[in-house]
Amino acid sequence: MLFIFNDPMLPHRDTALDAHAMANQFARHLSAVCPSLEWEVVRCAIEKVYYRQGHHCGVLYRVTLRHPAGSEADEWFFGRLCPEGRGFNQLERAVSAAKHFYVAHDFLRYLPPISFWPDLNMIVWVFPQDPKIAALPYLVDPGFVRQQIKTNLSHLREALGNGIDGGSEAWWHCTEIRYDRVKYMPGKRCVLRFHINMAGPAGESRQVNFYSKSYNDAWSRYHFDMLKSVYEQLAARAPIVNIPKPLLHLDGFNTFWQEEWPGQPLIEVMEEQNWEELFPRIAEVVAAMHRSRSNGFRPGPDPDEVMNTAEEDGTKFAYMLPQYQRSIMPALERLRKEKSALELQNIPAAPIHGACRVEQMLMRGAELALVDFDAVAMGDPHYDVAEFIASLQYLELSRGLSRQRLARAAKLFYESYAALVPWSCDRRRIGWYARAFLISKMFSSIKNLDFQALQRLEVDGQEIMGGWLESIMQN
Description:
With 475 residues, this protein is an alpha+beta fold. It has helices at 13-16, 19-33, 87-96, 136-139, 142-151, 157-160, 219-237, 266-269, 275-291, 303-320, 325-343, 381-399, 403-418, 427-447, 451-471; strands spanning 40-52, 56-66, 72-81, 114-117, 122-126, 173-185, 189-199, 205-215, 246-250, 255-259, 264-265, 350-352, 361-364, 367-370, 377-379. It has three domains: 3-126, no CATH class; 136-259; 264-471, Alpha-Beta Complex (Aminoglycoside 3'-phosphotransferase, Chain: A, domain 2), CATH 3.90.1200. Helix content is 42%, strand content 22%. A five-stranded antiparallel beta sheet has the order 1-2-3-5-4. It has a five-stranded antiparallel beta sheet with strand order 6-7-8-10-9.
């Protein structure tokens, strides 16, 4: 294992990052607070890690419990490792912010919403407790959701389908509410998928599925307004770009609802596709968005911002893994030297996604959809192209995919995109962005303790990184 795993300030980190060991920890702690607990811990998965060496390590766990009757339940727990001696102070602040919340399973009634595990020096939050997303306890409460649906039923009229009109919608009511756990970034954002059964005045029924996205601040309204603008403009100007429809913003709760676009994450089904067809199709969608001339968005990142991020992330990466200094530091110096030439170019501004990665796409048959428009902007279209190519190349590290095959995919994407837009696609500019993005992605493998990526870095990271930094989009 890489020496990065030695952290004397967080001596229990290795245990916290061992899913099997933590399954035993959860079983022991649950039994301690409720000796008569019938539910058994059968599985523990680590979904997200936030690590800052010597300071803290936050881990999002998805724990599966089974009842003797056979039913299973998934629950999120967020554990934060603290340096020795600092846990109680943080616990006091966390407990003061705790709120009552709806209990979906009986065993949750016996658990403290926030607890301290002294054997790991870890504070543990039970979802939906979150010190920075204060509205979460309300947003998973069926009573609250039912009232919001009743109040805002007109926004769901299209999702309900034929038979709902302005005169009859008031007669529809909610009979059942369930939600799936989609994505949770403790302290930042939470995405849930709701399944709502509705009954009509004549006994008819509809199922409505939608996503709920909660934020830790009031910027949720800005993100909702921008998403709505993107949706409306692209629906008229670039209908090939599928975007789940925004439904409504829940004022005061930093949350918006968005229609479900039934499909599968592209990253999960890529291997099943014909790449000779897939990546030109992706290029067509991205090019259509850029050509749409939609407007009204904030300015996108400029080369200075990209360079600053790459320098900060690259320097941290080289500090934590000194053996990579001979690769990272020259790469940063090269980016600095090339940046001035980029700034002299006159690049047309276009509506850009701002986080155009494989992970932000859904697929259904031959159709593609883009999601997560939080970073939408008017900016350099090369930015999106490079971000997508960098996300492809990083799959070599994070998923072990073939570099040659990924390079072929990037070439297909680039050449197809270049043929579809009226401006010249500068390979050097795309290569500059892509190298900067990849440096930040490498640092993210440490920040999020991506074990697969770290293990490949340990085995042949120098060769992988050398190939990236020297060959991506070069003439």
